[in-house]
Amino acid sequence: xxxxxxxxxxxxxxxxxxxxxxxxxxxxxxxxxxxxxxxxxxxxxxxxxxxxxxxxxxxxxxxxxxxxxxxxxxxxxxxxxxxxxxxxxxxxxxxxxxxxxxxxxxxxxxxxxxxxxxxxxxxxxxxxxxxxxxxxxxxxxxxxxxxxxxxxxxxxxxxxxxxxxxxxxxxxxxxxxxxxxxxxxxxxxxxxxxxxxxxxxxxxxxxxxxxxxxxxxxxxxxxxxxxxxxxxxxxx
Length: 236
What we know:
Blueprint: H1 4-20, H2 26-33, H3 37-49, E1 54-57, E2 61-64, H4 77-91, H5 96-111, H6 115-126, E3 128-130, H7 143-152, E4 154-161, E5 167-180, E6 183-190, E7 195-200, E8 204-213, H8 221-234
Parallel strand pairs: 3-5
Antiparallel strand pairs: 1-2, 4-5, 4-8, 5-6, 6-7
């Protein structure tokens, strides 16, 4: 039975490989999975016997019948965002094997996402930055909603209480999320202050997602950091 598990994993991987290109040769499959050509032939027969309509083109390779697709795994936007968030945390892990294996897993997950989900996942991935400090821990309840607001360019109304216990209402254009000292921070353009501000998520008393959209800000997160650094240096 111990040998069945690697083979089951390989069969699943071969099926993913067949879906990734129009035509895959037996040698392509053998080299990717470090098995013999004869093993590939046996695996292909197993997939065929399970009902997968694999077409064999003599001298060329294998493909899946046109029009046949396995039912995709469907994710809600919040679930997809949670996966991207986990990817950023895993990337900070000290174990390289975990980083590698999670990277392989998330690539497979992204392959079955709808095109709109893929675009939003890529955008969110470029709009998150995590710094680890294990000595502090704060909680918040609005990360998923703000992730959605970032990728949909959606205005958000905040009721906010600062660390100085000062209460304010803000309408903001969410831009990015920063994780530092175990706290989540929202980087957003504040319409009240007419500029970018940082908001601690655990200081948000409540928020309301507005239906109104805003124009995307024409800069990357790295460019924001560089501008913020210049402003900080000019104040000294």
